[in-house]
Amino acid sequence: METAEQMQLDINVEEAGASARKITVTIPAEAVDEKIELSFGTLQGQAQMRGFRKGRAPRQLLEKRFGKDLLLEARGQLIGAAYQQAIAENELKVIGEPEFPEELAEHHLERGKPYTFSCNVEVVPDFELPDLEGVEVTKPMFEIEQDHIDGEMKRLRYRLGTPERITGPFEHLDRMVGSATVTVEDHEGTFFETDQVLLVVPGEEDEGKGQLLGLLIDDLTPQVLGKKTGDTIEIETIGPPTHEREEVRGKKVSITFAINDAERITPLEDIQVAEQFGLEDTKMLEERIRLELENRRDSEQRNAEREQVFEYLIENTTLALPERMSEAQITRTIEGQRMEMLYRGEDPEVVEKRLAELRGQTEEHALNRLKLMFIMQQIAQKFEIKVTDEEINGRIASIARQRGERPDQVRGELVKNGSLNEIARQIVEHKGADRIVDQAKVTEIPADEWNKQAQAKAEARRDGSGSGTATAAKKTTKKSSKKTTKKTTKKTTKKKTKKKTDD
Questions:
Q1: Which domains does the chain have, with CATH numbers?
Q2: CA quadruple 282, 287, 291, 294: dihedral, nearest 10
Q3: Cut 0.85: pTM above it
Q4: DSSP annotation of 5
């Protein structure tokens, strides 16, 4: 029997949309017959039927009893081998699984007849990179002041403070745990329910906004302030357009939250915080905080430069995005942003709030992240960027330190939810962007001016979104209004391989 590489196939590949190809393959009749004979021959040699010794059952009886299932199995093997051969011969960089038409299920193998099938696949887009030298980048500059240290001190006082069970009435920053039942418009019955969900009363500076179950609720404060344990709160919102679950996007979401327990944090005194870190006095604690804030500032400055590079690449690269992959990108975008913020040292609660905000952004944000992924993959190839196990372990250790957990715990969580690849992708993006920043035209500007420019951009582009840019003093989303232009070049190829014979 010919192997997949030896089959003489008629292969036709044509464009079928943005970064999509339709593959049509005809398997010759002799290859079909040989596969059928091989399958039945193998079965005859192994089959055990009552009244016959092993391998002695009549062929006619075997075909009557097992013929249908055997032909289905043979068809699947032939299609799989022919598909792989078509991919290899045409050097297609396929993304995901092939999509076969439903009618293929009714198209059976027949002796003496060729077998033709087709499928659609998505492929890595073909595109040209823009000029990577001399990209104009601005670097926000600011010094760590005492008010920054005081703010971080306050955060630590609450983070390390003593929780005390309360029954209400609830105040700002009180934490409550309860059960939640979620219903979604056009979805019959309960969409989701859980017995353990955390809800934090937004702080005064949050202007009433807070997150619940990953959704950003604009008027959460007035709905929970003054409540007490035992109360039930009814909350309604609209599912964000880029939620991971398609059923939620743009739909009315109703949440019934029953408060079962609550606690209030009594913040520590400054000297108590110092003692928690094994320091002698608050002066030493302030110096430690200053050093950490300076390291965080340096990281934010570099991240701001990277994000400008990302925006430049997105705006100056034309490529056609795979449609099916674009749908799946929404979930990857959210998880990628989670890894990015945890690496930069954000508290988990702050991360979840920011993710709730991201889910409310437009679909263009997710598509731009997908576009950036392809661009950075090509840049990684151009600069021969590799990711080592040591770099991945280092990134995991950094996230673990920020979360106060062991690295093995964080790794286990990443493996469980399939996010380990996001770590590697993040490292590749950072290293690629850093190579471009190192040869960029960098202009230093005051952080206040930077923040004003970022805010102006965010307001001007409120109806669209680009790659998120973190400001040096605070995170501010910079939104790109340019939409991806899809362009394809039609190309049809036919390939036949010469039939090989055994020596």
A1: 10-123 (3.30.70.1050), 136-155+280-460 (1.10.4030.10), 162-266 (3.10.50.30)
A2: 100
A3: no
A4: T
